[in-house]
Amino acid sequence: MNSPRRTTLRITGDTPRRRGEDRGRQARAGIARAWRVYEELFATVAAANARTLDVPVLALRTVRAARAWAPELVEEMEGVAEGAGMPFWTIAALNGRTEILAEAGAPRTGECSTLVRGGPRTTGGQCWDWHQELADAWHPQTVTGDAQGFAGITEHGILAKIGVNEAGVGVLFNILGHADDAATGVPVHLVARQVLGTAGSFDEAVGMLTGAPVSASTVVTVVTADRAASVELAPAGSAVVAPDDRGWLVRTNHFLAPSLAAGDLRGRREPETYDRHRLLTTRVRAHDGGAGTAASGPEAAGGAELGPDALVGLLAAHRDDGAEVCCHAPAGGGLGSRWATLATVAVDPAERRLMVHDGGPCSAAPETWTPLTAPRR
User: What SS3 class is residue 124?
Assistant: First the structure.
């Protein structure tokens, strides 16, 4: 049974600091809860890898990089800290959680699968997988006051993650792992926030991403009404991956660009990312009526667009299907080992709209989707 619909935070403010203060006030209790889990998660993962973390120092190191790249993002985080009544470094650590976990040596089992169908009308979406203990630490949002209004989902205290803006520029998000990952550059969540809040076109978004001085790896899939590409980011550089000859982008958690794949860390540690990629590639080919055989259900229906129903049919795969795309936390285990699909997101850039389901694709139904439309400035 699904939990009650989550409250959508409607963030406003005519300056970065005011937007941050508004977020901090609205999400104060949720930010405090999320921080307690992350504080324990950082320590748990570091201890498991025989590492010692100085989280305030690491967080403020990423702030220095962010301030040099886009100082308004730091101002917004300062506003969040003020509104939430929390030390600034804790908000910086939340926004830099990917980078800090990279320093801790975190494994990334179960991390996110994305499908995009390019064409005259680009559509797609993803599973967002994360720690079960943080299942109540995210929310839908709309944000106005920046150059572009946008809608999406994010974690409490983190400025943005997955979303689409009023110009019809959307971003989907998969974490990668590279041998050089560290907590020294601009946090990847802040990079996504900058794209959503300022990019007015596909080219602007891709240019912003490829120019971001990041220090932890991710792939941000940019979607607009008629274009799509995955931008792989790593300390070693960036690469733009175009859709295949059928118009599909299938992304899990390993690099596809040869220039970055040599340093891939995630695939070596957790080869299940390749299993998910193979399974989803087979399913999308069957969706098109091409080679391969999908398990059953809506994924075999065909059609050019990838709406919520077709998307969940493709993503609803478990271990018995050959790969765990839809992820369920085990009953036992401790923090850091209990992964689950916390949300399923479908995006339609032409309509500036996201559809969000609270949970994995196997539990989605027409009545469980929450629509979000990017607001106008």
Answer: strand
Cβ atoms < 10 Å from Cβ of 2: 12
Give domain limits for the chain.
Answer: 9-104, 113-373
Q: Which two tokens stand for residue 311?
A: 């998307």
Q: What token pair was written down for 187?
A: 């946090």
The amino acid that residue 192 corresponds to is: A
- The topology (CATH level 3) of 113-373 is Penicillin V Acylase; Chain A (3.60.60)
On whether the CB atoms of residues 236 and 260 are closer than 8 A, the answer is yes
377 residues of the chain, pLDDT tens digit each = 344 579 999 999 999 999 999 999 999 999 999 999 999 999 999 999 999 999 999 999 999 999 999 999 999 999 999 999 999 999 999 999 999 999 998 765 568 999 999 988 999 999 999 999 999 999 999 999 999 999 999 999 999 999 999 999 999 999 999 999 999 999 999 999 999 999 999 999 999 999 999 999 999 999 999 999 999 999 999 999 999 999 999 999 999 999 999 998 877 777 899 999 999 999 999 998 753 333 333 333 334 689 999 999 999 999 999 999 999 999 888 898 899 999 999 999 999 999 999 999 999 999 999 999 999 87
- The three-state secondary structure class of 282 is helix
Q: What angle do CA 99, 70, 228 make, to 5 degrees?
A: 75
Give the strand pairing for 138-143 and 9-11.
parallel
Nearest of 36, 25, 29, 159 to residue 92 by alpha carbon:
159
Provide CB contacts within 8 A for 124, sequence distance 6+. Answer: 114, 115, 116, 117, 172, 221, 223, 228, 249, 306, 311, 346, 347
Please state the pTM of the whole predicted model.
Answer: 0.94
CA 37 to chain CA mean position, Å: 19
